[in-house]
Write a structure and sequence with these properties.
The complex is a heterodimer of chains A (279) and B (461).
Chain A lengths: L1 E10 L2 E7 L1 H6 L5 E5 L7 E9 L4 E7 L3 H7 L6 E2 L1 E6 L10 E7 L2 H14 L3 E8 L8 H7 L2 E6 L6 E2 L2 H10 L6 E5 L2 H14 L3 E4 L15 E4 L2 E4 H4 L2 E3 L5 H7 L4 H18 L1
Parallel strand pairs in A: 8-9, 8-12, 9-10, 10-11, 12-13
Antiparallel strand pairs in A: 1-2, 1-6, 2-5, 3-4, 3-7, 4-5, 13-16, 14-15
Chain B lengths: L15 H4 L12 H8 L9 H5 L6 H9 L3 H11 L3 H7 L6 H4 L11 H15 L13 E5 L3 H12 L3 E5 L8 H4 L8 H13 L3 E3 L10 H6 L4 E4 L5 E2 L12 E3 H10 L16 E5 L3 H12 L4 E6 L10 H9 L3 E4 L1 E8 L5 E14 L5 E5 L5 E3 L3 E4 L3 E2 L3 H5 L24 E3 L2 H4 L4 H21 L1
Parallel strand pairs in B: 1-2, 1-4, 2-3, 4-16, 6-14, 7-8, 7-14, 8-9
Antiparallel strand pairs in B: 5-15, 10-11, 11-12, 11-13
The chains are: A alpha/beta (279), B alpha/beta (461).
Bound molecules: flavin-adenine dinucleotide (FAD) (2 copies), iron/sulfur cluster and FE2/S2 (inorganic) cluster (FES).
Chain lengths: 279, 461
């Protein structure tokens, strides 16, 4: 069992948990993830390591409530515990030697992008963060990004906070204004990453994306997380999750992410009803 | 008076048309009378040819003699001297190519049903004997075991019995390896595996699940944590795909993924959260035990047609004979001498069919089996909405890539000597991680051998 030391709601649909898992805390680096199970019958879901405290032996995760398992996860109180918690998995982000980077985050993808922005900032890289949300209520980690960046642009779809528009608009503007990035790191919904990669390809800027396909084991054992990158099959859990955004077959990844769409929606509705019954 | 019947006593089974809709065990096991009657078929040969066919040399005529005397605990003790997992092996060993292949009764008629008798004895013991296991005096030495499959569990058990303090590190959330994530409930009830694991815990083995060695902790760090020897039993879990067009359409799975969802995550049960694809027409590509398990699971999930697509003929199929027979009885359709060349998809990128070619057998290849060659102009479409690739697995490179000086061969298998010692001092390995995908009994045997080597190594250190 892995105790939950701290729980904080970042917005109505995004929650932060600090979980006691000393082995993971000691080893995890930016870009890696964990897999957890909420209870005995639970499914295994991957979440990015948002932060660690090796001394206290704790790992921070930030998740968006999108389906049955994240719904259940959101109902575990501080002091409760998780049934299983394994990691760190995946390859850490490769950030050595980068001088100037644009970090682009979309929605809960910002939770995945934040530890990378922080690691870049700590090694002295100039960081421009462009973070996008649907509206003001969904903005997360604003302070954290400000502390880890030289420039922060907050974008909302409806203009209710920051600037109105998509992250790609802001990125294009910055590039057009003469900012020269060694690399763009984009993390968010597949469609967002696809369009960021399309944009940077025109400018010839190296772009890394963090892929989050459906996973089970996270150790290379099932192949369920496979993607096509540069025409070759890759397992996101062991070869990634970071890949060259100009090489990823996004359309295939989008299709594959819909594999269990119907069943998952059904599970989520059931779980919501269950919790409604309790409350 | 020996029983001179030319046939084995039949194994009681669930009816094929009932069992292909549930996940309960297919073979129900002998009654005491059936077992004693079958035991009477054994001639107690002095030269014991059957023993030579057993990878761990169980004294077969001796345990069968005890069944004749109705001394079932005595029979169990004889088996247990050589095998740590008799209830498992009695169910899943390929007896027809091992002990039973050598049995003299098999020259004219069927061999003695050694596997069924082994299972009978082990089940009897599990259900009737509740002995608190003897705890060995601790010798103060610590050993780490990586992987809780049959190889690792056996090694851990033998070392704990010799007084070592053993910790098993397992990547998944439960121990058991392929026995829990691969082999389905209807062939190997998980309660049997859990009982074996509970026994290990009772004799003091610590099992740390959710720990991926090479990620959370490296082999070298285990040494610095105070472990004096390490056994690697990490299996051969990496699935292979064919590399044909269309393999990434939705509805194409590795057998590992399909079986893991069903067996480990219990996706066949209503109370489980993990989804699994319920194909209507399913093709399973391959001819091993894994393919049979995947096909029979697909059928149980309600598929109308399930095909085994295998490029050689029935004679070359590597699966246990019994599994092939059971699959046929359950209505699995065998498309032998048939090879897929492409998977087609619909507008939503879900599988819509599989293009295959017919094969014929040519000259023998390196494995001595006749090589299948494509028949010209024999292409045809198989109407399926789900494809399960079951064409083999190889060892995961994770431990090798994080352990300096650990030698592997061209297939990624860890290189060891006969005692299980790797190229690193104090590091031993065995099971599928060394041999590539093989069998439970060989993995168990390798775990036993390595435990002996580790004991000798640490005693002389
Ligand atoms: C490497 C990696 C890192 C991730 N990091 C984060 C993170 O830091 N924060 C966060 O909120 N989310 C993250 N995710 C996504 C998160 O795993 C899914 O949101 C979660 O599994 C959904 O589970 P559910 O049961 O609540 O929703 P479901 O009802 O199962 O699904 C809702 C949506 O999530 C997708 N999904 C379902 N199962 C999985 C799965 N096993 N893996 C990935 N996606 C799935 C589905 O395609 C669907 O669109 C990450 C995913 C990966 C692969
Ligand atoms: C579907 C299926 C059906 C089969 N049917 C039969 C049969 O009927 N008869 C038969 O004899 N054999 C059968 N086999 C083969 C048999 O199961 C294997 O040969 C046997 O399990 C190998 O044992 P092992 O201990 O070497 O490895 P495994 O059983 O594979 O166990 C290895 C364990 O190590 C863990 N692990 C891997 N890497 C790490 C790491 N880095 N850190 C921590 N833990 C790690 C894995 O999670 C796993 O639990 C079948 C196999 C499959 C897949
Ligand atoms: S070879 Fe057959 S008959 Fe002879 S001892 Fe072995 S099991 Fe009995
Ligand atoms: S999650 Fe199973 S191989 Fe990546």
């Amino acid at each position: 069992m892995y105790p939950i030391i701290k729980r904080k709601e970042l917005n109505p649909t995004v929650t932060l948990l600090e979980v006691k898992a000393p082995r993971v805390a000691k080893k995890a680096k930016a870009g890696q993830f964990i897999i957890l199970r909420v209870d005995e019958a639970g499914e295994r879901i991957p979440l990015t390591v948002a932060d660690t405290n090796p001394e206290a032996g704790t790992v921070t995760i930030i998740f968006q409530i999108v389906g049955a398992t994240t719904e259940k996860l959101n109902h575990i109180p501080e002091g409760g515990s998780l049934h299983d918690f394994v990691g760190p998995l995946g390859v850490p982000s490769r950030i050595e030697g980068l001088k100037k980077v644009a970090v682009v985050g979309g929605g809960v993808g910002c939770a995945i992008a934040y530890p990378i922005a922080k690691a870049l900032h700590q090694q002295g890289t100039e960081v421009h963060s462009i973070v996008g949300f649907r509206n003001k209520d969904l903005v997360i980690l604003e302070e954290e990004f400000k502390n880890a960046s030289d420039l922060v642009k907050i974008m909302t779809d409806d203009g209710s906070y920051g600037e109105k528009g998509l992250v790609t608009n802001a990125l294009k503007e910055l590039i057009d204004s003469g900012e020269q990035y060694d690399e763009v790191i984009a993390i968010g919904p597949l469609v967002m990453m696809k369009f960021v990669a399309q944009l940077t390809k025109e400018y010839g800027i190296k772009t890394t994306v963090s892929m989050n396909p459906i996973m089970i084991d996270g150790t290379g054992m099932c192949g369920g997380c496979r993607l096509t990158v540069g025409g070759k099959t890759k397992f996101a859990c062991v070869d990634g999750p970071d890949f060259d955004g100009h090489e990823v077959d996004f359309d295939e990844a989008i299709q594959r992410s819909r594999m269990y769409f119907e069943t998952e929606r059904h599970h989520h509705e059931e779980t919501c009803n269950l919790f409604k019954g309790v409350e | 008076m020996p029983n001179m019947s030319l046939e084995k006593n039949k194994m009681p089974h669930q009816d094929p048309n009932v069992r292909n809709k549930n996940f309960q065990e297919v073979a129900l096991g002998y009654t005491l009378e059936q077992a004693k009657d079958e035991a009477e078929r054994c001639l107690g040969c002095k030269h014991k040819p059957c023993v030579g066919g057993c990878p761990v040399a169980i004294d077969i005529p001796a345990f069968i003699a005890k069944i004749k005397e109705e001394d079932l605990e005595g029979a169990y003790e004889i088996i247990n001297r050589s095998s740590s997992l008799p209830a498992v092996c009695g169910r899943v060993c390929p007896q027809e190519t091992q002990c039973e292949a050598k049995c003299v009764r098999g020259i004219k008629g069927e061999p003695v049903a050694i596997g069924r008798l082994e299972r009978f004895v082990a089940d009897w013991h599990r259900l009737n004997v509740e002995k608190e296991p003897a705890l060995a005096a601790k010798n103060g030495h610590k050993v780490a075991v990586i992987g809780a499959g049959p190889a690792g569990l056996t090694c851990a058990g033998d070392l704990a019995k010799a007084g070592y303090e053993v910790t098993v590190f397992e990547a998944l959330h439960v121990a058991g390896g392929v026995l829990v994530y691969g082999i389905p409930e209807f062939r190997l009830p998980k309660a049997i595996v859990h009982a074996e694991i509970d026994k290990l815990k009772k004799i003091g083995v610590t099992i740390e699940t959710n720990t991926v060695v090479g990620k959370a902790v490296s082999v070298d760090e285990l040494f610095s944590e105070g472990f004096e020897a390490i056994f690697i039993g990490s299996g051969a879990g990496l699935p292979r795909f064919m590399g044909i067009p269309g393999e990434n359409f939705n509805g194409v799975f590795s057998a590992n993924e399909f079986l893991t969802r069903i067996n480990l995550m219990k996706a066949y049960r209503d109370d489980a959260n993990t989804p699994v694809h319920h194909g209507k027409n399913v093709a399973v590509v391959g001819g091993g035990n894994v393919a049979m398990d995947a096909a029979r699971c697909a059928k149980r999930l309600g598929a109308e047609n399930v095909y085994i697509v295998y490029r050689r003929s029935l004679d070359e199929m590597p699966a246990r004979k019994e599994e092939v027979e059971h699959a046929m009885e359950e209505g699995i359709i065998f498309k032998t001498l048939c090879n897929p060349v492409e998977i087609t998809g619909n507008e939503n990128k879900f599988v819509s069919g599989m293009k295959c070619v017919e094969m014929e057998l040519g000259e023998p290849d390196a494995s001595g089996r006749r090589r299948p060659v494509e028949k010209p102009d024999s292409e045809f479409m198989l109407d399926v909405d789900c494809v399960i690739m079951s064409i083999g697995t190889s060892p995961n490179p994770l431990i090798k890539s994080t352990t300096e000086g650990l030698e592997t061969n061209a297939h990624g298998c860890i290189v060891t000597n006969e005692g299980g010692l790797t190229s690193r001092e104090g590091v031993y390995a065995g099971g599928d991680a060394v041999t590539g995908a093989a069998t439970v009994i060989l993995a168990m045997g390798a775990g036993k051998t390595a435990a002996q080597s580790i004991d000798e190594y640490l005693k002389n250190k």
